[in-house]
Amino acid sequence: MPINIPEHLPAGELLKEEKIFVMSEGRATSQDIRPLNILILNLMPEKEKTELQLLRLLGNTPLQVNVTFLNTATYESKNVSKNHLDSFYTTFEYVKNRRFDGLIITGAPIEHLAFEDVQYWDELKEIMDWSKSNVTSVLHICWGAQAALYHHFGIDKHDLSKKLSGVFRHTLTDPTVKLTRGFNDIFEAPHSRYTSVSIEEIEQNADLQLLALSEDAGAFIVLSKDEKHIMITGHLEYDACTLGEEYERDLQKGIDIEMPENYFPNNDPTKRPLNTWRSHTHLLFSNWLNYYVYQETPYEWE
């Protein structure tokens, strides 16, 4: 089934080129189908790239999905045009009286700040609290996952000695959990962050279950026991080239940064990296939409 996106969204043409089934708003409204309504709070600086990455995954299931993009009102994005935000995004004020089947909260490159020092932290807390009664399931990514662990479960992040960047092996802890159904016992996933969270604190919290972890990258997939919140500390949604683009960006800024680990073939940055996590990315998003959103959300919200 298709993904329903706003008319003229730039990512739409790229999705069509990739043979992702995209439906216009006009055609979607003519079908007698109850689509899933997914809200995406996009906190990433290069919003159009993140839009494409997430829409590609949401559009690859048998479910029809309506997508609404959300931007912060208390912080003005600097890496995307105001016209793009005005055309395709809304703010919390205009959706807070609605109900959504799913919510995705992305990462953000603000790990150097304490949560309380983030300009839009109060707004994000309001959204996260609102989601408890207005959203069926919430998927938190990278910094968004750390924010959720801190706000909902009292687990703070801690600084790493250097940036964790690369593709790392992860071990599945319980193959029977619906979210990771179909996963290999060992699988790869990319990470890109300066902070981490404590495995011990997660395992000691009765409201959380650690589903996947890595010797090198730490906790990776965390599920709340009520299955309301899913926290992914890495970036399964990344394209093959994304870590390389971040590496080049940091070098150009004069940042003393190491090459992403296990990423470039033979550690040669002139060689094209391969996507070795794509299948598990699609599995995770498909399982989330099916088991945690579609199977749990009411047909009609009261």
TrEMBL record:
Gene Ontology molecular function terms on file: homoserine O-succinyltransferase activity
Native species: Sporosarcina highlanderae
Active site feature: C142, H235, E237
Pathway assigned to this chain's UniProt record: Amino-acid biosynthesis; L-methionine biosynthesis via de novo pathway; O-acetyl-L-homoserine from L-homoserine: step 1/1
Gene3D superfamilies listed in its UniProt record: 3.40.50.880
Ranges in coiled-coil conformation: none
Role according to the record: Transfers an acetyl group from acetyl-CoA to L-homoserine, forming acetyl-L-homoserine.
Protein name: Homoserine O-acetyltransferase
Keywords on record: Acyltransferase, Amino-acid biosynthesis, Cytoplasm, Methionine biosynthesis, Transferase
Reactions mediated catalytically: L-homoserine + acetyl-CoA = O-acetyl-L-homoserine + CoA
Alphabetized InterPro entries for the sequence: Class_I_gatase-like, HST_MetA, MetA_family
Main localization, broad class: cytoplasm
Site (Important for substrate specificity): S192
Top-level EC class as recorded in UniProt: transferase
Family: Belongs to the MetA family.
Superkingdom in the source lineage: Bacteria
EC number: 2.3.1.31
Cellular localisation: Cytoplasm
Residues the record marks as site: Important for acyl-CoA specificity: E111
